[in-house]
UniProtKB/TrEMBL annotation:
Protein name: Transcriptional regulator
Source lineage: Bacteria, Pseudomonadati, Balneolota, Balneolia, Balneolales
GO molecular function: enzyme regulator activity
Alphabetical list of InterPro entries matching this protein: N-reg_PII (IPR002187), N-reg_PII-like_a/b (IPR011322), N-reg_PII/ATP_PRibTrfase_C (IPR015867)
Origin species: Rhodohalobacter mucosus
GO BP of this protein: regulation of nitrogen utilization
Length: 100
């Protein structure tokens, strides 16, 4: 079976940032995403946004250029003031042309 090598970008963030992050990753070039609720424990302690429910986990399959753009945006705009985790994995995707 033929696969396309893409980047799986996973973003775990405070729910208050959900719409902002989704809008921005779409502007950068993501064609879609998977959104799930997330809970866990981290180094930031109690946050004001815990009133709004669980954190958000966003996953998107993108090209390397789009992955770099997403990471740059989050690094430059969100890391300093919010609880945000971003990691990238290589993914071998069936029907990969749907994502680039």
């Amino acid at each position: 079976m033929k696969t396309t090598t893409l980047k799986l970008v996973t973003i775990v963030t405070e729910r208050i940032l959900e719409e902002r992050v989704l809008r921005k990753i779409t502007e950068i070039g993501a064609r879609g995403y998977t959104l799930t609720k997330a809970t866990g424990k981290g180094s930031r302690g109690v946050r004001a946004s815990e009133w709004e429910g669980p954190d958000t986990r966003i996953e998107t399959l993108v090209s390397s250029d789009v992955a770099d753009g997403i990471i740059e945006y989050i690094s430059d705009n969100l890391f300093e003031h919010y609880a945000v985790i971003v990691y990238v994995q290589e993914a071998h995707v069936v029907r990969g042309d749907k994502y680039i």
